[in-house]
Structure formats: structure tokens, C-alpha cells
Design goal:
The protein is of the alpha+beta class and about 150 residues long. It is about 25% helix and about 10% strand. It folds into two domains: about 10-40, no CATH class; about 40-149, Alpha-Beta Complex (Protein-Tyrosine Phosphatase, Chain A). Strands 1-2-3 form a three-stranded antiparallel beta sheet, with helices on one face. Strand 2 (about 80-90) and strand 3 form a beta hairpin. Helix 1 (about 15-25) crosses helix 2 (about 25-40). The model has no long low-confidence stretch (mean pLDDT about 80).
Length: about 150
């Protein structure tokens, strides 16, 4: 089965509407509109190339603002991806991330380490690994062991 291009999912106006707008609004308006849209263009190539690492396929990660992890394994081509975005707020910078999957725990921990995250707020109940893989120990003083990254 052939994979559809991302462009197939972009809605556009019909050629009839386009030519009518061009005829009535003039070429300058169309050029200005196109330039404005081009500046706002958002890409999702990293998201599309890392489908197995995304917990929720319907929550798109745009390339702009996406967290890029420092590569730690020389042979890992996709080792810099995590479904997370850095945003700036009135009181500092924040990272919004999907809860980790079992296969992405090391990337999750690397993100916390590399970006010196000191507070983690989980917005989902930690009742099953279907929603969030375990990334901490519940018992105080007990170590959470993972492989080195």
C-alpha cells in the first residue's frame, strides 16, 4: 500500500474560486496573501517520521519549537526526537510533552536531564502504562534504574 503524501491532507480552494479571486481582487492581493501564508507555514516532518515514538497520533508536533535532544548514540539516526515542545510563558520557559511510552523512557529521561527539568506536572492519572509508562519510583529513597544515556 502506497503511503500518501502529507500534502494530500491540505485543504485548498478550487481552481474556479482561485481564478475568481485573482480576477476580482487583483494579483497584488493574491501575492500578499501567499507570502503571509508562507511565513506561517508549519512543518510536521519530524512527527511523521517518528510515528512509533508518538503516544497519540492525533496530537501533531510541529517542527517549530520542538525539543531536539542531543544525540548520545553515534549509530542512532532518530535519537534526537521526542514529542515535546518548548514554550515561553510570563514566568519562564516550559516543556509540554506527551507522557512517555515504555519504548521512549530513555528519551524522556534524557530530555529531563538535558534541559535541567526540576518540576514535572503529570496531567493524567498514573493508573496504567497504556496512558503513561512508569518513569519514577513511588517509594521514597528507592532508585529508578534505567540504562545509561
Amino acid at each position: 500500500m502506497q503511503k500518501l503524501s502529507e500534502q494530500n491532507f491540505v485543504k485548498g480552494e478550487s481552481i474556479i474560486k482561485f481564478t475568481e479571486n485573482l480576477r476580482t481582487s487583483g494579483k497584488l492581493k493574491m501575492i500578499t496573501e501567499h507570502d503571509g501564508m508562507r511565513r506561517k507555514e508549519r512543518h510536521i516532518s519530524s512527527f511523521m517520521q517518528n510515528q512509533k515514538k508518538n503516544r497519540y497520533q492525533h496530537i501533531v508536533l510541529y517542527n517549530e519549537g520542538a525539543i531536539i535532544l542531543k544525540v548520545t548514540k553515534k549509530d542512532a539516526k532518530d535519537d534526537d526526537y521526542i514529542h515535546a515542545t518548548k514554550i515561553k510563558g510570563n514566568f519562564g520557559s516550559y516543556i509540554l510533552a506527551q507522557s512517555p511510552k515504555r519504548a521512549t523512557i530513555n528519551s524522556w529521561l534524557r530530555m529531563i536531564w538535558q534541559f535541567n527539568v526540576t518540576i514535572i506536572i503529570c496531567l493524567i492519572p498514573l493508573i496504567s502504562e497504556d496512558k503513561c509508562a512508569k518513569y519514577f519510583e513511588k517509594e521514597e529513597g528507592k532508585k529508578f534504574n534505567r540504562q545509561f544515556f
